[in-house]
UniProtKB/TrEMBL annotation:
Sequence ranges of Basic and acidic residues compositional bias: 29-55, 164-173, 184-205
Region ranges (Disordered): 24-55, 164-213
InterPro entries listed in its UniProt record: DUF2171, SWFGD_dom
Organism (species): Sphingomonas olei
Annotated protein name in UniProt: DUF2171 domain-containing protein
Domain of life of the organism encoding this protein: Bacteria
Transmembrane segments: none
Length: 213
């Protein structure tokens, strides 16, 4: 019996958790799952064995064996499918992160349809910030995630059309994350300027993107 195993304490979440863990090779979880099945069978037999004939018992065992066989086959197929899909996704995601390192200031960003999306201002974390002087930007900074990258050469090409990108890009002026993007250099001088009352009229956005256009 698995160490620390208590059949009476094996509720739904414990069983479901071990089921998932067993898919990924957790041998202890698999042993607990097998013990659950064995004791379930025994418990059922204790309750109903005296009320069923031998033919029923034989039929039931064959049905359970068939169910277990089909389930194990299903589990193997789907585990393999998950591993293959995850591996492919991870490779593609790493390629996108590597492409992000090639993105430079002033690069044009276009959709998969070749239409203009914006112009690179800078890269911050896992996102590309776009300048605010494009017509569709309406004087506001927007950003797009690196997961949208298709290729980066002389321009940045996305996996979305230009219209899709503009529909789903993030308006940084409305994002609380914006205030972590700003260059910290010279903060003391800016603080002093604001204290002297010479910085009136500037927005937090302008300060966060000091020197951008």
């Amino acid at each position: 019996m698995p160490q620390g195993y208590d059949y009476d304490e094996r509720g739904f979440f414990a069983r479901a958790g071990d089921e998932v863990r067993s898919w990924f090779g957790d041998e202890e979880a698999e042993r607990r799952r097998e013990e659950d099945m064995r004791l379930d069978e025994r418990d059922y037999g204790d309750r109903y064995g005296n009320h069923r004939d031998s033919d029923y018992g034989s039929w039931r065992r064959s049905q359970i064996a068939s169910l277990d066989r089909d389930y194990d086959e299903y589990r193997r197929e789907n585990r393999s499918k998950f591993e293959n899909e995850f591996s492919s996704w991870r490779t593609n995601r790493q390629t996108q992160r590597d492409s992000l390192n090639k993105v430079t200031e002033h690069m044009e960003v276009v959709g998969m349809d070749g239409s203009h999306v914006g112009t690179v201002d800078k890269v911050r974390g896992d996102r590309i910030l776009l300048t605010k002087n494009d017509a569709d930007a309406e004087g506001r900074h927007h950003s797009i995630p690196s997961s949208w990258l298709a290729t980066v050469d002389t321009k940045v090409t996305l996996t979305k059309t230009a219209d899709e990108a503009k529909k789903h890009w993030r308006d940084e002026e409305n994002s609380s994350a914006l205030f972590g993007y700003g260059d910290r250099t010279g903060d003391q001088n800016r603080d002093k300027t604001r204290t002297d009352g010479k910085d009136e009229g500037r927005t937090s956005l302008d300060r966060s993107f000091s020197g951008t256009y």
